[in-house]
Amino acid sequence: MNDITILRRLAQTIESRKLAETNSSYVAKLFHGGQDKILKKIAEESAETIMASKDGNTDQIIYETADLWFHCLILLAFHELSPDDVLKELERREGISGIQEKASRTSD
Ligand SMILES: N=c1c2ncn([C@@H]3O[C@H](COP(=O)(O)OP(=O)(O)OP(=O)(O)O)[C@@H](O)[C@H]3O)c2ncn1[C@@H]1O[C@H](COP(=O)(O)O)[C@@H](O)[C@H]1O
């Protein structure tokens, strides 16, 4: 299966790791480290995604983006949020041009 439900399944696994042992779970270890630890990983994975793009390495872009999405899911869980919250926001934006949206903000 290769659809959006992987985000929901992964979010459930991440949620279940909140109370897991830190020596057997990478996610539990990150939760244990707190927000700063999670944010540091997001910064690292963002930088690695940027480098992969600059190198034009498509396999690496996919790999690093997967790392970035994964760590963003951990951050969402840290704040008791889910991928569905983000998907809903993307749905809300669907069909609204970024140019149009920015113009409506700047005319305030
Ligand atoms: N999708 C992932 C996933 N993607 C990346 N990673 C880990 O994220 C880390 C990425 O960090 P780096 O690339 O910087 O590698 P590193 O140098 O080893 O990392 P650090 O020691 O610096 O943290 C690596 O340790 C990867 O193994 C993941 N770890 C877990 N998952 C999923 O999360 C589930 C729960 O994992 P556990 O909590 O470990 O059971 C797993 O079953 C998977 O489905």
Please, could you describe this protein's structure?
- With 108 residues, this protein is mainly alpha-helical.
- It has one domain (5-106): Helix Hairpins (Orthogonal Bundle), CATH 1.10.287.
- Helices cover 76% and strands 0% of the residues.
- The model has no long low-confidence stretch (mean pLDDT 95).
- Bound molecules: phosphoribosyl ATP.
- It is an enzyme of class 3 (hydrolase).
- One of its GO terms (molecular function) is ATP binding.
Q: Which properties best describe this structure?
A:
binds phosphoribosyl ATP; single chain; globular; 108 residues; mainly alpha; Helix Hairpins
What is the strand tally? 0
What is the terminal separation in angstroms? Answer: 45 Å
Total helices: the number is 6
CATH architecture: Orthogonal Bundle
User: Would you tell me which CATH topology applies?
Assistant: Helix Hairpins
Low-pLDDT residue spans: none
User: What top-tier CATH class fits best?
Assistant: Mainly Alpha
Give a quick precis of the structure.
Helices cover 76% and strands 0% of the residues. It has 108 residues and is mainly alpha-helical. α1 (5-16) packs across α4 and α3 (35-55) packs antiparallel against α4 (58-78).
How is the topology of this model organized?
Blueprint (H helix, E strand, L loop, with lengths): L4 H12 L9 H8 L1 H21 L2 H21 L4 H11 L4 H9 L2
Helix pairs in contact: 1-4, 3-4
Bound molecules: phosphoribosyl ATP.
Keywords: Amino-acid biosynthesis, ATP-binding, Cytoplasm, Histidine biosynthesis, Hydrolase, Nucleotide-binding
Pathway: Amino-acid biosynthesis; L-histidine biosynthesis; L-histidine from 5-phospho-alpha-D-ribose 1-diphosphate: step 2/9
Subcellular location: Cytoplasm
